[in-house]
Amino acid sequence: xxxxxxxxxxxxxxxxxxxxxxxxxxxxxxxxxxxxxxxxxxxxxxxxxxxxxxxxxxxxxxxxxxxxxxxxxxxxxxxxxxxxxxxxxxxxxxxxxxxxxxxxxxxxxxxxxxxxxxxxxxxxxxxxxxxxxxxxxxxxxxxxxxxxxxxxxxxxxxxxxxxxxxxxxxxxxxxxxxxxxxxxxxxxxxxxxxxxxxxxxxxxxxxxxxxxxxxxxxxxxxxxxxxxxxxxxxxxxxxxxxxxxxxxxxxxxxxxxxxxxxxxxxxxxxxxxxxxxxxxxxxxxxxxxxxxxxxxxxxxxxxxxxxxxxxxxxxxxxxxxxxxxxxxxxxxxxxxxx
Length: 338
What we know:
Oligomer: single chain
Helix content: 25-40%
Radius of gyration: 19 Å
Strand order of the largest sheet: 1-5-4-3-2
CATH architecture: 3-Layer(aba) Sandwich
CATH topology: Rossmann fold
Number of helices: 11
Structural class: alpha/beta
CATH class: Alpha Beta
Number of strands: 9
Largest sheet: 5 strands, mixed
Order of helices and strands: EHEHHHHHEHHEHHEHEEEE
Strand content: 5-15%
Distance between the termini: 15 Å
């Protein structure tokens, strides 16, 4: 898999394996970072959207989501049957699971502060994009996630002082997975691809640069996967084939993202990053699913209609017999093993 890294603290091999391999449970590894802060979309959301108002906000707060969640079935807001990639990465860093959702903590300033100091905070929001206009009004866009982080930093400084807060942030891990929703929205009403990429990279750069200014130095970047091969995209094809045009849009964005991170690392002293190639990993998995233990790479385990992709995973949905032998849990998200 084509992964690129300049991050010594967490090997890129670990990060890539976490995204693509099974995790049976929390590892007994040494705590590698004081905290992890999480930014992005539904691939990392642990429940922020549960606290957003509105009927069109995407949420995973009802069964059958979380049916395999460790410790007992519980719909936490993760778009998964159990844990997802943020949890697995957190475990490899020595944390129990992903840090909690910002909006679950915000009404309790002391709880927010303690989480920020002890484990970190997740700002990720399902449906979010790099652009504020992406699914506007139904998520926390990336720019607002960064502003929430800024307010968290201010609370940390008030408690432990500016120097201590900055040191803590410099040693913490900042995880990103975002861009899929921007590309999907664009694909529904295509326009100038070069202009899209320019806006996305500008927004991504602003987020990383702003966090760097707050003291962040260690970043984990998960690129966009094969968007044209998720069940909801395949179901639009008479043959159930992947949408090559959507995959090409994803690949083009990933090329720009790779160049962006290399440029930022060269320009910003001390910035280290790992770039996990989710796109390539998906290609490898789809080419030989049996090697990874999968029996289905195209249908959703939980859903209804053609390919299980006509509805979200709902309490009355049909589910597959063996959840973790399907790559996809619902029409747009992978299972906890994928």
